[in-house]
Design brief:
The protein is built from 3 helices and 38 strands. With 827 residues, the chain is mainly β. The longest helix has 10 residues. InterPro entries: Decahaem-assoc_OM_MtrB/PioB.
């Protein structure tokens, strides 16, 4: 809900008006379709379907070119008139009640279902008969956390001004339990009685019993202003400014040590609460010019993200490692940095002979962030590793004070379409994309002359990561890797009409990607496409396609990052005389770089079962086979969708739909169970006895039914949807060395995780009683039930050994909501 202080801002957004151009070529229509869960499309809730359907005189029902029935339209609005101004208005308001005052987070995640008065929708429209001026005002959920408003005005054919404001909540947890005080700020403090870095489990338990539960949520508020001017029929100028504010809290991470090797008292996992206070400014400006044979579009976009909370620090509730005298009092994270984005885009198209069209695009983008960097640690004193943290807890310990990070991209694209003779259509496209990463940072401390950084604020004495020249050590990462790429795409397509209403298409695509600092310098993918569409049967439409692609590339280098690790330094001395230990299994293939064969099948069938009925069936199958022994081995996706529509009259229509999707994949790897320079599978570092494989099988089902019926003065509509999903994960382990914690035995861990299951039922019904031409009464009901079975949260407590959790767990819920609303229209 908005406060009195926010009202002038909302009024300014609405009445000053902003450009929200609805033409797709400028993409300036974003945020002009507003709504919430109770009215997702933001349309006039007082409207009813036109009893005449799409035509006054035509008796048969209208269909799309693919044979599907069009939805019945709404009745044309009726306008009153004062002088030469036409006007209309509508409003809907009433009261909401429900049977669950607790409001589970799964139910209110993006909605405000608060009991009480509700102004669900309002609208006022007016236009001038002679000069063409117009004004449209609409909104809904007034004063609630999911409210929205839209204002548009101007003069038809000359200019348009539009303004909007909308708010969306995001509830993560309604009963989160945290030990910390100062939630929502940048500093999380332990309660009185606890000492940072030195508490027993019993003391932490006692403090948790006194802690109160709280909601973890944020609110997104967005508004904007702009314009559209059309001084001539061929020239249009448009612009837009939007501002988005996100404020609140959400679950966040925090850790000092790996959880299973620290023992029951030393600090491992700590769940914290992130403060959210973001502000984003977006700008868009451009023009469109069209002549008889060509069209030119220019667009400039900019985005400026500002985070008012730069860091998050928290006090450590746990003790140190046994034998470690250094007290780790605090931990700290750097939060999302301020950043800027600029994009300039130019589109040009020209009509050619042979019904041809030439299109081209040139674009440049710049992403830049120069936020101030935080010191390597927040703590002070002498760590057990021998490092004096007083030389590392200041910005003077940084090689540069700001990030100086920048990425520039270029995009060039051309396309050609020709119809040399009637049955044949030819298309060719070329696209070039260049991404240049100009970001360079070296972890170097000018105060000490050392290369490196402090790990986990000094919590792990064995992982100081400060380079000691000529001292035996393992290499570590000390420079950022400026990943960059250049991508080229070619596409050639031909469509030929074999017989009337039957078309055969063939296509070829090629993609070449050159990458900097990746395991493969280049990947090459070739794709062949065959497609056919048939409309020769009066009662059906068929479309099928098959695609085959083959990706290969340059030789695979399992470790291309040596230049960014300390073993590239001249004074590096490895623990092993033969060389350094490998970071990655040489036989592992990353899925975006490995050789791959892909088969893609698509099909669509639309069947006319009669003048008032249709049926649609579509399916997709994607089969990816990766030529790899380790990594992602294969990935398969299948989907089938069914829909049946029945419209015996404009007063009655109903539909049924169903969707079934499956996905299976498998990944494999070998744990680094040994200590040697051998990177190969079966060697000392990666013995086959430490190999493992994981298989995932996921199934998703969606079913739904809906209807609409008008009789006498009543309108009854309803819809029901059911969603069900299950994820099965099983694994194979060669021995206990394959486990993340090798101290466990295979008998204990078994060979699979419990299935993850999710179900959701949503039933909505509406009964509308038209009392007279202006007044109506609407009774709505919404039933929603959801269940989640996720083994990650089974038996989860706020404190388990050295794990501190928020207990932000998903819960089953069942809610009935009833609303009684009055609708009134003018004239």
């Amino acid at each position: 809900m908005f406060s009195k202080a926010q009202c002038p801002l909302i009024i300014f957004w609405l009445l000053s008006a902003l450009a929200a151009d609805t033409q797709a070529n400028s993409a300036a229509g974003v945020d002009t379709l507003l709504g919430n869960t109770l009215n997702p499309t933001g349309t006039d809730t007082t409207q009813t379907l036109d009893e005449r359907g799409l035509a006054t005189f035509k008796k048969t029902f209208s269909r799309s070119p693919t044979g599907l029935l069009y939805e019945p339209p709404f009745s044309p609005p009726k306008f009153g008139k004062i002088d030469d101004w036409h006007y209309r208005g509508s409003i809907e308001g009433g009261f909401l009640i429900d049977d669950d005052s607790a409001k589970p987070e799964n139910f209110i995640e993006y909605s405000d279902w608060s009991e009480g008065p509700l102004l669900n929708y309002f609208n006022f429209s007016s236009w001038q008969e002679n000069k063409g001026y117009f004004l449209n005002l609409s909104g809904g959920g007034v004063g609630r956390d999911d409210q929205y408003y839209l204002a548009q005005g101007g003069r038809y054919g000359l200019f348009k001004l539009t303004g909007f404001f909308n708010e969306i909540p995001h509830v993560f947890e309604t009963r989160g339990l945290t030990l910390f005080q100062g939630v929502g700020s940048q500093q999380l403090l332990l309660p009185a009685g606890l000492v940072p870095g030195n508490n027993t489990a019993e003391e932490i338990h006692s403090a948790l019993e006194a802690a109160s539960r709280r909601s973890l949520d944020l609110s997104r508020k967005k508004g904007g202003l702009g314009f559209e001017i059309t001084p001539t029929p061929h020239f249009r100028i448009h612009g837009r400014y939007t501002q988005e504010a996100n404020k609140g809290t959400r679950p966040f991470g925090g850790t000092f040590l790996a959880p299973f090797y620290t023992g029951g008292t030393a600090g491992g996992v700590v769940e914290t609460v992130e403060p959210i206070d973001y502000l984003t400014h977006d700008l868009l400006a451009g023009f469109n010019y069209g002549a008889r044979r060509y069209q030119l579009n220019f667009t400039y976009r900019a985005s400026f993200f500002r985070n008012q909370k730069k860091t998050l620090s928290w006090e450590n509730p746990f003790k140190n490692l046994p034998g470690d005298s250094f007290v780790v009092e605090r931990g700290r994270f750097a939060l999302y940095p301020d950043n800027d984005f600029h994009n300039v885009k130019l589109d040009f198209s020209y009509r050619l002979p042979w019904r041809g069209l030439f299109t081209s695009t040139a674009a440049w983008s710049r992403m830049h962030q120069d936020d101030g960097l935080i010191p390597p640690t927040v703590n002070s004193g002498q760590a057990d590793s021998g490092i004096d943290l007083n030389n590392w807890n200041t910005t003077a310990a940084l090689s540069q004070k700001t990030a100086q990070a920048e990425i520039n991209t270029w995009l060039f694209q051309v396309g050609l379409r020709l119809v040399p003779f009637d049955p044949l259509t030819l298309r060719a496209d070329f696209r070039y994309y260049d991404e240049d990463n100009d970001t360079d940072y070296t972890a170097f401390n000018p105060l000490t002359g050392d290369i490196g950084y402090i790990v986990e604020d000094g919590a792990d004495p064995g992982r100081g990561f400060v380079f000691q020249p000529n001292q035996p050590a393992r290499p570590f990462h000390f420079r950022n890797i400026p990943f960059a790429q250049r991508k080229k795409n070619w596409s050639f397509n031909a469509d030929y009409r074999l017989i009337p209403k039957t078309t055969l298409g063939l296509g070829y695509q090629r993609e070449v990607i050159e990458r900097d600092y990746r395991e493969r310098e280049e990947t090459r993918e070739n794709r062949l496409i065959a497609r056919v569409s048939n409309r020769s049967i009066p009662w059906a439409t068929f479309r099928f396609s098959y695609e085959f692609s083959d990706r290969t590339g340059s030789p695979y280098r399992f470790d291309p990052y040596t230049a960014f690790f300390t073993n590239s330094l001249p004074e590096f001395n490895s623990l092993l005389p033969q060389g350094t230990t490998p970071f990655t299994l040489a036989d592992l293939r990353k899925f975006d770089l490995s050789d791959r064969e892909q088969h893609l099948f698509r099909g669509l069938v639309n069947v006319l079962l009669g003048e008032t009925m249709d049926f649609s069936l579509s399916f997709t199958r994607v089969d990816n086979d990766f030529d790899a022994r380790f990594g992602l081995l294969h990935d398969e996706n299948n989907a089938i969708n069914l829909e049946w529509n029945y419209q015996p009259s404009p007063k009655l229509n109903t539909y049924v739909f169903g969707s079934y999707q499956t996905r299976t994949n498998a990944i494999a790897n070998i744990n680094d169970a040994g200590f040697s320079t051998d990177p190969n599978a079966g060697g000392t570092t990666f013995p086959l006895s430490a190999a493992w494989r994981e298989n995932m099988d996921e199934t998703n089902t969606a079913l739904g039914v809906g209807f609409y019926y008008q009789f006498d003065r009543f309108t009854l509509d309803g819809n029901y949807s059911f969603n069900w999903s299950r994820s099965e994960i099983d694994y194979e382990a060669a021995s206990n060395l394959s486990l993340a914690n090798p101290e466990l035995s295979l008998d204990v861990v078994g060979n699979s995780f419990p299935d993850l299951k999710y179900t959701r039922h949503i039933l909505e019904t509406n009964l509308r009683w038209k009392i007279n031409k202006n007044l109506a009464l609407r009774l709505l009901h919404r039933y929603e039930r959801g269940t989640i079975r996720d083994w990650h949260f089974e038996g989860l407590n706020s404190l388990i050994d050295n794990h501190l959790f928020l207990v932000a767990t998903p819960n089953d819920f069942e809610v009935n909501l009833v609303g009684l609303l009055i609708q009134y229209k003018i004239p």
